[in-house]
Amino acid sequence: MCLGIPGRIVEVWDESGTRMAHVAFPGETRKVCLAYLPDLAAGDYTMVHAGFALTRLDRRSALRTLDMMREYELIDDTAAGHPTEAEEIRGARGAGKIGGMR
């Protein structure tokens, strides 16, 4: 069984007619094929299996999943540049994007 971990696309390019990407995962970046989801772009989150992006994730779901994985000590990516959901919410609140949250 595989454990899916959300990754953030950091770069997209065309390689011999196929869309490819570098995807940042906790602690590492991998080269991923976007053939099944060619409309993904830098900044999008995805789940990858066997080197292929299979599912698009919204940012909030990806951050929640990463937070839960940290809580259960499945990953330790504090230095990998993935904000926690709490950090994301604080940043959005400070920018006026989320109202009424305490």
Structure description:
This protein has a single domain (7-94), classed as Roll (SH3 type barrels), CATH 2.30.30. The chain is built from two helices and five strands; from the N terminus they run E-E-E-E-E-H-H. The chain has helices at residues 59-71, 85-94, and strands spanning 7-15, 18-25, 28-33, 45-49, 52-57. The model is unreliable at 96-102 (pLDDT under 50). The protein has 102 residues and is of the alpha+beta class. A five-stranded antiparallel β-sheet has the order 3-2-1-4-5.
Give the termini separation. 39 Å
Q: Describe the biggest sheet? A: 5 strands, antiparallel
Helical content stands at 10-25%
Computed structural class: alpha+beta
- CATH architecture tag: Roll
Low-confidence stretches: 96-102
Count the strands? Answer: 5
In CATH, the topology is named SH3 type barrels
What can be said about this structure in brief?
This protein is an alpha+beta fold and 102 residues long.
Summary keywords:
elongated; disordered C terminus; 102 residues; alpha+beta; SH3 type barrels; 5-stranded antiparallel sheet; single chain
Q: Secondary-structure blueprint of this entry?
A:
Elements: E1 7-15, E2 18-25, E3 28-33, E4 45-49, E5 52-57, H1 59-71, H2 85-94
Antiparallel strand pairs: 1-2, 1-4, 2-3, 4-5
